[in-house]
Amino acid sequence: MFSGKFFDNLFSAILSFSSLRETINTFAPKRGSPVSLSDTTPVIIELDKSNPSVFIMNKIYLIRLAVSVANAAMDLDNPTYYYDAKITKRGEGQAVKARDNLKNIEFDTYICSPLTRTMQTFSIIFPNKKPLIQPLIREQLYHSCDVGKQPSILKKEFPLFDFSKLNQYWWNNDEPINEKKIVKENFNDIKIRLEKFKSWLMLND
Description:
6 strands
């Protein structure tokens, strides 16, 4: 069971995390630590601890994806398109550094966006671990790099991951669409997604 204050702080942090443009991988470590949010730097935001008994997941780590080819591009979407962009060599190095920073933390649960760059980042930081694939925490759809791939394709690229619960057009809120079309999300779209993620967390507690 989670307190309302816990969720208020959690989702305020997510909404402000790198101006909505950074995909978040969320990880819940072993119980017993003070509640906080952290990225890989780490910057920690303390959550409400006035009633610790209501918390089950005591610490949530929000880990930004490694730099992708789209992040490094100077011509994003004009004229070159970077559909479901992969991480760069520099990004791989960032992920290795994050792995070293997190290697002594034991996690209960791993949750990852199905965008290729986030799963590549996850695979380096947590080799041989199997995350819950959750499209609700994907990056804001704004450029070609935020357009995803069908689960059948992702399964071939990430055979260790389970995509059985991932719908075909997950990046477009499960609505069929031309797979090269970019339907931009606004701030309200993100808020709706986060509310759905909140409900999902409650059901999967």
